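QUALITY CONTROL LOG
STEP: pairwise intake check
CHECKER ROLE: data steward
CRITERIA: each record must contain a sequence immediately followed by its structure tokens, with no blank fields

ENTRY 1 OF 2
RESULT FIELD BELOW
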Amino acid sequence: MTKATNITWHAATVTKPERRVQNGHGSCVLWFTGLSGSGKSTIANAVSSELYRQGINEYVLDGDNIRHGLNKDLGFSDHDRTENIRRIGEVAKLFVDSGAVVTTAFISPFRSDRDQVRDLFEKEEFIEVFVECPLEECERRDPKQLYVKARRGEIKDFTGIDSPYEAPERPEITIRSDLLTVEQAVGEIFQYLQTKNII
């Protein structure tokens, strides 16, 4: 693939700080990471709903949904997983620049990929939310029957079975989804956002 070379960055007339002032709140990305079945999408959408209820500009980027459109050309090899996360990081950055609080729900199994996305953002704009849940509990839930298929060998390179998951070492927020209700998880995340004066 030939990369474009004759391109120049065009500075926007309206700035991110100006959008934040108009919105009356900060902007950031809440990057939910964890095993399939840990509850990432459920909690991310619950956070988004509460942000909306409070009049905060928000949007959810969900792993499965993104693979229906923007990333439908990608598979699940290590290379494709890395490119999947890179693209999402760039999209999330645009949302943060627009002044919104964006929540992302992606397994994003590799620590280096998540760190690469973190480097796209200014300090405290990237909030890593580790939705921690034992593999056994994720398999018990198995809402999409993916673990069953992976155990049968019907799905290859499945995270937690035959592909590794590298847990965050220093996430901003850790949610034990096997111990907390969705409401309690949302409460912890909102407390963090309020402490950082984002909302």
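ENTRY 2 OF 2
RESULT FIELD BELOW
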Amino acid sequence: MAILAMVAISYSSSAQHVDRTSFKAGVHVGVPLGDISDFSNFELGLDLGYHWSVSEMVDVGLATGFMNAFGNTSTEDIGPVAVEVDFPDIQYIPAAAAFRLYPTYDFKLGADVGYAIGINEGNDGGFYVRPMIGYNINGNTELNVSYTTISDNYDYSMIALGLLFLF
């Protein structure tokens, strides 16, 4: 009876496991905050990742992509002279570990943590953290909200809305 009970418990726990192992690709749009908001009003990015299902409630994986904060053009008054200033785009490629927790099938909480490689001139890159909340629209499409911060020579932070597809 004890062996039969252990086999039944083992089978039922493995039968409940949902395998969410998948490649993920999507886009996000963001609003810069902090120091970066002085130079940009809009950010657009590409999200790529691969997640492995560890348990019914946990995924781990790798995340990368591309982020581009579009530089503003502004007019600065220097005495009686008005000078037009074009700020350059600020671009990063994140290389991060990903963690997701699924309290329900439809909702997920998680974060990407790693390093963001600065690819435009004068951009050193820095420590990258992106916590997020996601909602499964259907079996292979997710809508998410995230906050990104990069510790560079300035405060690069933004809030973004993203659409992600699972393959």
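INTAKE CHECK: passed for both entries
DESCRIPTIVE NOTE, ENTRY 2: Residues 2-15 form the longest helix (14 residues).
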